[in-house]
């Protein structure tokens, strides 16, 4: 799952009032490991963005965005969602630190429901809050990375998380522990078989087509956390 690269057309159907996807989906969690890797392509976000502001302790900003990439994506932010969303958050908030989660993001990790990266994301969130108690934490993930967010919230106080965003979440339909749904921005493409398990979906195209949703997602997240440039 993940690691495919972005396209110019998004296909998700989201609700602006609640931030949750309106695509019919199941909260079932079986079979993720069998999906394996869908490949790796070059993303279209363009431009360099920071990815280690927390671990390098580069200073406090109003918002801290911690992101987990999808399966087989390179770096810590990947290419499909991470860099573009980070750029848009920096622009929309005017004050945003960015931190990628350094976890394997391999095909085998799909079977462990985010356990290979969840504790690391939780540790980064706690570290960010220790370094900058007033920063607004946004946790985000794409594909397997979305499962990392679910797992991380087993080890971090959800009340300290200002917002969550998930793209192509294999656990779509499940809540994010301790985080009110009004603080969640989700995208699940109507034909994305990774997150839409209605049995009506085919192909992988929609799973790599979230590039056109990033500007909207950043704007909604900035509004949720109450920080605008």
Automatic annotation (TrEMBL):
In this chain, the stretch annotated as Disordered covers 1-30
Gene Ontology CC terms, in alphabetical order: extracellular region
Which GO molecular function annotation, any one, does this entry have? cutinase activity
Q: Which SUPFAM superfamilies would you find in this protein's record?
A: alpha/beta-Hydrolases (SSF53474)
Primary location: secreted
Name its GO BP terms in alphabetical order.
Answer: carbohydrate catabolic process
| Cystine residue pairs | 60-132, 188-195
Q: What is its EC number?
A: 3.1.1.74
Cross-referenced InterPro entries, in alphabetical order? AB_hydrolase_fold, Cutinase/axe, CUTINASE_1, Cutinase_monf
The record's comment on protein family reads:
Belongs to the cutinase family.
Record-given protein name: Cutinase
What is the native source organism of this protein?
A: Aureobasidium pullulans EXF-150
């Amino acid at each position: 799952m993940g690691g495919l690269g972005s396209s110019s057309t998004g296909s998700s159907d989201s609700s602006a009032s609640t931030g949750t996807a309106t695509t019919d989906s199941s909260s079932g969690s079986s079979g993720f490991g069998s999906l394996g890797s869908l490949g790796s392509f070059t993303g279209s976000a363009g431009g360099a963005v920071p990815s280690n502001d927390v671990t390098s302790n580069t200073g406090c900003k109003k918002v801290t965005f911690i992101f987990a990439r999808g399966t087989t994506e390179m770096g810590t932010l990947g290419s499909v969602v991470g860099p573009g969303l980070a750029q848009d958050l920096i622009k929309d908030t005017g004050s945003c630190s960015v931190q990628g989660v350094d976890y394997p993001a391999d095909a085998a990790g799909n079977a462990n429901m985010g356990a290979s990266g969840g504790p690391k994301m939780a540790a980064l969130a706690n570290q960010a809050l220790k370094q900058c108690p007033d920063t607004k934490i946004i946790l985000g993930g794409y594909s397997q990375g979305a499962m990392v967010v679910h797992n991380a919230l087993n080890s971090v106080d959800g009340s300290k998380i200002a917002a969550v965003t998930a793209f192509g979440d294999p656990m779509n339909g499940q809540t994010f522990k301790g985080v009110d749904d009004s603080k969640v921005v989700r995208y699940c493409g109507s034909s994305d078989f990774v997150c839409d398990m209605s049995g009506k979906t085919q192909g992988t195209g929609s799973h790599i087509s979230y590039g056109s949703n990033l500007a909207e997602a950043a704007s909604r997240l900035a509004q949720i956390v109450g920080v605008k440039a």
